[in-house]
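sorry for the late reply, my laptop died twice this morning and i had to redo everyting from scratch. anyway the thing you sent over, i finally got around to it. pasting the sequence first so we're on the same page, its 574 residues, then the predicted structure underneath. double check i copied it right bc i was rushing
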Amino acid sequence: MDNLDWVQELIEAPDLEAMGTVLDVRLQANVGRGSPADERLLAERCAFEHEVRRFLTRAQERGYAYAMHFPQMPTLWVDFVNQNKAAETSIARLNVRRSYEAGRREATEATKEGWASEPKAALPARRDGFDPVAMIDRLVQDAVAQRVAQLVPANVAPLAPSIAPLAVTAPTQPTNSDDPTASNSDRMSSLLREFLRPASRKRQHTMKGRGEAEAVVQFAIDFLGDPRMNELTDDKWKLLDEALPDIPNRSNIPREAAKTLFQRFKYAEDRGWSELTRVTTTTIKSRYWGGLYKFIDWTIQEKRYSGARYTFECIDPENLAPLPRDAFDDDELLKLLTQPLFTGCKNRMHVWQPGGYLVQSHIYWGFLICILTGMRPGEVGQIKCADIRTDNQFFYFDLRPFDARSGRVALQDLRNLKTNAAGRVIPVHPLLIELGLLERMQELMDKGEERLFPEWDVYIRKDGTQRWSQPLSKSWQYAKKLLKLSRADLTLYNTRHLMADWLDSGGIAQRTRDRILGHASDVRGRYGRKGILDPQIAAKIEALEPPVIKRMREILLAAKNRADAGGLTVLKTY
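ok and here's the structure:
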């Protein structure tokens, strides 16, 4: 088709915002033209409709608030779909009429050629709008209704006149079940849908972790054939237990064969393990066993399963041991910080390509705060402007769930921390201040913005829980491939171990080290002033500047000074 240039634009779009721009413009144009008049245009619009649905699904999965960026899109989308539905109905009706007329022409020709009997005289066209297609529809409906009435027992109320299947099948009876009255609602697939159904506002806290359990419960459904819960004997649980370690990871499996755990399992079963690797014991114990336990406990609590919770135990000797996390090497850290994101990039969208712009985005600050404070990526995304505080001598990130001196707060207003020990206070490194973090905070506060990184979108899981680390984690995965960093134990979380190494090399006491990193300490460390540092300790921490930080300062401030002098154009993301 010659009107599908937008497909190439979508392929070249670097992110969801660029894709949304292409789709929004196209939606406006299509809605403005009205319903398509022929099947060719309808086919083009259906292809476009499919891509919009994919975009909306991806936006929801990644927590991208497309309606904020494209406020007309929801309304345009509804109008566009309604136009397509109207066109489908109109074109389908036109095709029926065309077939009817073609049949009449063929019958006339056959009569003229002498190989068909002479038809009865056609009724004259009526002036009251008689529609032969509608008459045929009514005749079919009447015939079907009579047929169904003959098949339905006399003590059953007759069906309303409508198009219905010509055959009536007996309801499926349960098999291999102690309870012959058990219904399909007791099958694992039905229970999984109930398990994942969003809870009410007051029960939302009970949903934590359910979305993560979906994949392994679906594996159990596929592997066992979607049985009813009370059909699950110890033998079936054992079969499932033995199958879990035989699920390979995604490496070397085509994408279309790796969409579900069961597809990966069957791929290994059919192709063998010569090019595949097994998952780690941590994955089996935390994700697979943990997810199944959560689901089984729920079915027992809801009285949908009368058996006892099975204890999983199978681990294959070829399952991989988990990798310990290590700190960044100096060379790896400097390799990251010499990239265009920190030294001058192409534009807001292409921050990893060199150019004449300095874009101090949430990704820019996210990496630097993780490196210079040891914060978790998910903690950085939640920082509010008011969380940067000062005692008139030092600036601090206040990561406590709330300020107890200001009184109690609602649960919904608490910070989403990993553990209770994660509430802490961390000095703002002087390099962050020199790069303009406080200026950013002040500008946002002047605009009435609450969050320090308003462009940082939170990812909402299916169970309603939030994952703040998503944007930075995905950027790190891209950067790792770009930089060809192949070390298996190198993750974004290694920035915490990097800070731990710096604290250790600076002779910082263990209790203070735990406070800075948000690790659980002894009981005494969890009371009192909630981890506020002594000014002398704070000064010692801020003075930490190993050789690699001195090199970081040279790289980062060189770009900042160029921007201040006009050598780089500053682009703001808020």
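The first strand starts at residue 357 and ends at 358.
thats about all i looked at so far, will dig more tmrw
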